[in-house]
C-alpha cells in the first residue's frame, strides 16, 4: 500500500490524535466527524477543543461528509464500542469490496456480547477487518511522542501491510494475527483501570494497587485463554502494556472514573462528562466469563459497584475474604 488514502472516522480526542500522527505530505488523512460546524471550525483554526494546545496538521482534511470519508483505501473507525456497529452500517453502502476497516474501540457490545471486529463483519460484510489497540494516550500521540501499539488482522500479510501503511516515525505499530487477543486486552483493561482507580480514590495504598492490578491481569489472562487468545498477545502491548498504562495514570478516563468512585462520587457523576468504556464493558465481560466458567472476582466487584448491587467497601471486604490459595 504505497501512499494509501486514509480516513479516520471519529473526531474525538483519539480519532483526531490518530489523524494528526498519521498525516504527512505524501499521506494525507481525511478526518470525519458528524458535526459539520465543529469540523469546519477545526479546518479553519487547525485545532480541536478535544486536544487543547495541539496544532492539527495541514495534511488533515476535516469533513462531515461520510461519503467523502468512505472514499479511502484504509478506514480507521474511532468511535466507542457501542457506536461501532451503527457507523459500520452507515459506511457499508459507500465501501468498495475488500476495503480494510480498522476498529480502534476498546470494548464489547452490550446485549450481543460481540467484539468490535465481529460488529464490523456483521454490519459491513464486503470489507476486510482489523483492530488497533495498545498503550496510548491521545495527547501523547497527537504531539508526536513515542508510542507503540498493535494492529491485528486474521491474515498476516494484510496485518503487516496495514501496520506499514498506518505507522509514523513516533507511532510504532507491531502487527499480529491474534485479533481476539488484541480485542480482549483492550476491553478488559478498561474494567481493571476502574478497579485500580477505586483503590487510589479510597486511599488504600500503593501495595493494594499493585496487588489489584496483578490479580486483575491474572483474570484477564484466564478470560483470554478461554476465548482463544494467545498468551504472548496478552503479555504484549495490547494486553499487559495497556493494563500498565491505564491502571496507573490519571490520563486514563477509566482510571479517573474509578478514582472518583473511590472518593465517593456516584457512578452517574464520576465520569465528569467523559466516556469511560469500562463502565459499559464490566457487566458484559463478567457475563461472558461466567458462561465459560472463568473466575473474575475483581471485574465482578466493579460490575456490582456500577450497578449498585454492592457498595465499594462491601466489594473490598468480599475480595479480601476470598480464600488465598496457590498463585495462578
Q: Proportion of β residues?
A: 5-15%
What's the overall geometry? globular
Number of helices: 16
Number of strands: 8
- Strand order in the largest sheet: 3-2-1-4-5-6-7-8
Structural class assignment: alpha/beta
Mean pLDDT: 96
> Radius of gyration in whole Å, from Cα?
19 Å
What does this structure look like?
- The protein has helices at 13-22, 36-45, 66-70, 81-91, 116-123, 138-142, 156-166, 179-201, 206-226, 231-234, 237-246, 253-262, 267-270, 277-291, 297-307, 312-320; strands at residues 6-9, 29-32, 60-63, 74-77, 100-103, 128-133, 147-152, 171-176.
- It has 328 residues and is of the alpha/beta class.
- It has an 8-stranded mixed beta sheet with strand order 3-2-1-4-5-6-7-8, with helices on both faces.
- α1 links the parallel β1 (6-9) and β2.
- It starts with 5 loop residues before the first strand and ends in an 8-residue tail after the last helix.
- The model has no long low-confidence stretch (mean pLDDT 96).
Please give a quick description of this structure.
The protein has 328 residues and is α/β, with parallel strands linked by helices.
Characteristic key phrases:
328 residues; alpha/beta; 8-stranded mixed sheet; 8 strands
Q: What are the SSEs and their pairings?
A:
Layout: E1 6-9, H1 13-22, E2 29-32, H2 36-45, E3 60-63, H3 66-70, E4 74-77, H4 81-91, E5 100-103, H5 116-123, E6 128-133, H6 138-142, E7 147-152, H7 156-166, E8 171-176, H8 179-201, H9 206-226, H10 231-234, H11 237-246, H12 253-262, H13 267-270, H14 277-291, H15 297-307, H16 312-320
Parallel strand pairs: 1-2, 1-4, 2-3, 4-5, 5-6, 7-8
Antiparallel strand pairs: 6-7
Helix pairs in contact: 4-5, 8-9, 8-11, 8-12, 8-14, 8-15, 14-15, 15-16
Amino acid at each position: 500500500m504505497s501512499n494509501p488514502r486514509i480516513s479516520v472516522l471519529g473526531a474525538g480526542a483519539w480519532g483526531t490524535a490518530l489523524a494528526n500522527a498519521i498525516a504527512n505530505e505524501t499521506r494525507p488523512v481525511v478526518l470525519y466527524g458528524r458535526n459539520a460546524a465543529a469540523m469546519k471550525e477545526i479546518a479553519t483554526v487547525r485545532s480541536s477543543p478535544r486536544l487543547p494546545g495541539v496544532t492539527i496538521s495541514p495534511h488533515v482534511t476535516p469533513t462531515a461528509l461520510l461519503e467523502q470519508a468512505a472514499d479511502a483505501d484504509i478506514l480507521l473507525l474511532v468511535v466507542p464500542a457501542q457506536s461501532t456497529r451503527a457507523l459500520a452500517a452507515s459506511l457499508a453502502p459507500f465501501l468498495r469490496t475488500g476495503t480494510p476497516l480498522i476498529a480502534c474501540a476498546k470494548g464489547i457490545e452490550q446485549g450481543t456480547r460481540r467484539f468490535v471486529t465481529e460488529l464490523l463483519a456483521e454490519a459491513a460484510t464486503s470489507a476486510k477487518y482489523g483492530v488497533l489497540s495498545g498503550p496510548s494516550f491521545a495527547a501523547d500521540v497527537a504531539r508526536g511522542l513515542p508510542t507503540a501499539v498493535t494492529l491485528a488482522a486474521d491474515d498476516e500479510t494484510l496485518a503487516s501491510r496495514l501496520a506499514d501503511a498506518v505507522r509514523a516515525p513516533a507511532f510504532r505499530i507491531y502487527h499480529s494475527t491474534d485479533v481476539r487477543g488484541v480485542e480482549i486486552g483492550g476491553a478488559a483493561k478498561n474494567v481493571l483501570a476502574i478497579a485500580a482507580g477505586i483503590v487510589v480514590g479510597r486511599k488504600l495504598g500503593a501495595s493494594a494497587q499493585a496487588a489489584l492490578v496483578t490479580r486483575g491481569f491474572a483474570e484477564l489472562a484466564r478470560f483470554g485463554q478461554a476465548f482463544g487468545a494467545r498468551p504472548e498477545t496478552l503479555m504484549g502491548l495490547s494486553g499487559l502494556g495497556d493494563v500498565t498504562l491505564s491502571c496507573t495514570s490519571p490520563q486514563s478516563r477509566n482510571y479517573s472514573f474509578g478514582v472518583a468512585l473511590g472518593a465517593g462520587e456516584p457512578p452517574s457523576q464520576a465520569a465528569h462528562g467523559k466516556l469511560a468504556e469500562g463502565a459499559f464493558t464490566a457487566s458484559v465481560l463478567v457475563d461472558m466469563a461466567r458462561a465459560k466458567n472463568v473466575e473474575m472476582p475483581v471485574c465482578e466487584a466493579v460490575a456490582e459497584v456500577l450497578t449498585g448491587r454492592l457498595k465499594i467497601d462491601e466489594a473490598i471486604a468480599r475480595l479480601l475474604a476470598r480464600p488465598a490459595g496457590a498463585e495462578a
